[in-house]
Write a structure and sequence with these properties.
The protein is mainly alpha-helical and 349 residues long. It folds into 2 domains: 9-204 and 314-343, HUPs (Rossmann fold); 217-311, Tyrosyl-Transfer RNA Synthetase, CATH 1.10.240.10. It has 15 helices and 7 strands. A 3-stranded antiparallel sheet has the order 4-6-5. Mean pLDDT is 91; it is low at 165-171 and 175-189.
Length: 349
């Protein structure tokens, strides 16, 4: 995730909630994408390092465990930028221009100058972020599948341009490698430098912002994971509701109401039953319904807020965890980078 400030519910339900569960099933690498923070905010980046610590605190508070996963800051592992530079040499510009979010973000963020190489190339930096660790899966929602497909195309093009030859004896000594079995000769096999990862689709429930649009800091419509209980109640009082409920006596439909979406994620079945009955019969008002949503949301977030407060009092500990994660990440990234440099002829094996 990019360090643009404290994480909000959209970040949490869209990715982080799933990451916490994936760390018990896979060897995972999660990082704070501070290079990516400059792709849209290069003119006024602010305290990117401080924001990165805040994101790390939210990661840890939500349940990511450094004992189970590798957690680090992107810029602390320089191989990310190095592999990105290498990929720039052969990636066609039209591949980047056709990424769906490229034009979409230009439309949504018109107040920012996005006519930069950094913004155009951010999906390629993502590809480097991914391929550096040669993963089998990339956990994404449906809206990010196009980015994974670009990553696969980049890996495929690299492998086609820079095929490396290894003897069967060397191949046998590296059983963790995925080897293409096409023979170059009787004594040489062809090795894939970057296996193509698959998208691991993770559920991303509908979670609108306070104004009904996608929850995003750019829109100023977010609820942060660490917002105080009273602040959450105040924010929810301003949240849009079913447009059919113009008056208190008008019946509504929780299935088309942003507040109803919050209930589905954070309220009990008992509360949900009251919401459906009360809203559809106009037996309750929107203010009462929002109060119940605040109850469920605050109950869910209280353990996260508590852990975050403890970590905020120990910034040195958080920084050391990130440094340790960077060392662990680099132990995997450097051999992969070396292999790529050898493949293109910039280094000797």
């Amino acid at each position: 995730m990019r360090p643009t400030g404290r994480l909000h519910l959209g970040n949490y339900m869209g990715a982080l909630y799933n990451w916490v569960r994936l760390q018990d099933e896979y060897d995972c690498y999660f990082f704070i994408a501070d290079w990516h923070a400059l792709t849209t905010d290069y003119a006024r980046p602010g305290d990117v390092h401080g924001k990165s610590l805040s994101v790390a605190i939210d990661f840890l508070a939500a349940g990511l465990d450094p004992a189970k996963t590798v957690l680090f800051k992107q810029s602390d592992v320089p191989q990310h930028a190095a592999l990105y530079t290498l990929f720039q040499m052969f990636t066609p510009v039209p591949w980047l221009e056709r990424v769906p979010t490229y034009k979409d973000q230009q439309e949504q963020l018109r107040e920012k100058d996005l006519a930069t190489i950094g913004f155009l190339g951010y999906p390629l930096l993502q590809a480097a972020d991914i391929l550096l660790y040669k993963p089998k899966f990339v956990p994404v929602g449906q809206d990010q599948v196009a980015h994974v497909e670009l990553t696969r195309e980049v890996a495929r093009r690299f492998n086609q341009l820079y095929r490396s030859a290894v003897t069967p004896e060397v191949a046998a000594a590296k059983p963790d490698k995925e080897l293409m079995k096409a023979e170059i000769s009787e004594n040489v096999l062809e090795e894939v430098t970057f296996p193509e990862p698959d998208a691991l689709l993770t559920p991303s429930p509908k979670l609108p912002g306070l104004d009904g649009r996608k929850m995003s800091k750019s829109y100023g419509n977010t609820i942060a994971l660490t917002d105080a209980p009273d602040d959450i109640r105040k924010k929810l009082k301003t949240m849009v509701t079913d447009p059919a409920r113009v008056r208190r006596t008008d019946p509504g439909n929780p299935d088309v109401c942003p507040v109803g979406d919050l209930h589905k994620l954070f309220s009990s079945q008992e509360t949900m039953a009251k919401v459906y009955d009360g809203c559809r019969t106009a037996g309750i008002g929107c203010i009462e319904c929002k109060g119940w949503a605040a109850d469920g949301l605050n109950e869910h977030l209280e353990p996260i807020r508590s852990r975050a407060a403890e970590l905020e009092a120990q910034p040195g500990r958080v920084e050391e965890l990130l440094r340790d994660g960077a060392r662990r990440a680099a132990a995997v990234a450097e051999p992969a980078m070396h292999e790529a440099m050898v493949a293109v002829g910039l280094r000797r094996a």
